[in-house]
Amino acid sequence: MVGVPGVGKTTIVEKLSGAIRGSRIVTFGTVMLGEGKRLGWIKHRDELRKLPVEKQKQLQKLTATHIAGMKGKVLFVDTHLFIRTGEGFWPGLPFEVVRALKPSHLILVEADPREILARRLHDKTRYRDDVNLKELQAELSLARSFLTVSSTLTGAPMLIASNKNGKSGEVARKLAKMLVEAAR
Q1: What is the 3-state secondary structure (H, E, C) of 18-55?
Q2: Are 3 and 9 in contact (CB under 8 A)?
Q3: What is the pLDDT of residues 8-33, one digit of tens each?
Q4: What whole-number distance in Å separates Cα of residue 43 and Cα of residue 160?
Q5: Chain Cα centroid distance, residue 131
Q6: Model confidence over 116-173: pLDDT tens digits?
Q7: Which of 29, 35, 106, 131 could form a disulfide with 158 if both were Cys (CB 3.0 to 4.6 A apart)?
């Protein structure tokens, strides 16, 4: 499950996991945060994207290997397709990471850019980068490009789910139905 910050992917994946018996959620950034803290490189999640790209690469590989070893009937990985860094946009799912994770499906959550900006402004739990509407629209376009590449590298089908305000439960139900049918 992927999408730009503030699109609502975590909300949807939580509802989706609740709809599929035996599933569990792992947040890539949370595991990556644990690895970064263990190594003494960071103290909080929003420092991850401020690390030099080489350190981010190391953490991504460690995290992907850790997640790939997790057991479960259905494992939802909540992550980003790219991270805005001081060095440019860094892939959240580079080749080594998608190879380790071996996803069965790639799901991109999208929303209206104005809704995303409003969500980001109201989320006081995170230290988000300030972006304007034009930059956010570019990020949404970039997300589709990264999704296409990840799907090509893994052979996993890609889905795009639109998350309108107040409709996350409906989106989760539709995705759950599709995933259950695909597993048959």
Answers
A1: HHCCCEEEEEHHHHHHHHHHHCCCCCCHHHHHHCCHHH
A2: yes
A3: 999 999 999 888 888 889 999 899 99
A4: 33
A5: 19
A6: 998 888 776 666 667 789 999 999 999 999 999 999 999 999 999 999 988 999 999 9
A7: 106
pTM score, two decimals?
0.86
Task: Write down the domain spans for the chain.
Answer: 9-183
d(CA 96, CA 122) in angstroms, rounded, equals 35
Q: By the 8 A CB rule, do 54 and 48 touch? A: no
Pick the CATH number of 9-183 from 3.40.50.300, 3.30.2010.10, 1.10.357.20, 3.10.20.30: 3.40.50.300
**Residue 85: strand pairing partners:** 88
Could you give the CA distance from residue 49 to residue 43 in angstroms, rounded to a whole number?
12
Q: What is the DSSP string of the chain?
A: -B--TTSSHHHHHHHHHHHSTTEEEEEHHHHHHHHHHHTTS-SSGGGGGGS-HHHHHHHHHHHHHHHHT---SEEEEEB-SEEEETTEEEESS-HHHHHHH--S-EEEEE--HHHHHHHHHH-TTS-PPP--HHHHHHHHHHHHHHHHHHHHHH---EEEEE--TT-HHHHHHHHHHHHHHHH-
Q: How far apart are CA 39 and CA 107, in angstroms?
A: 31
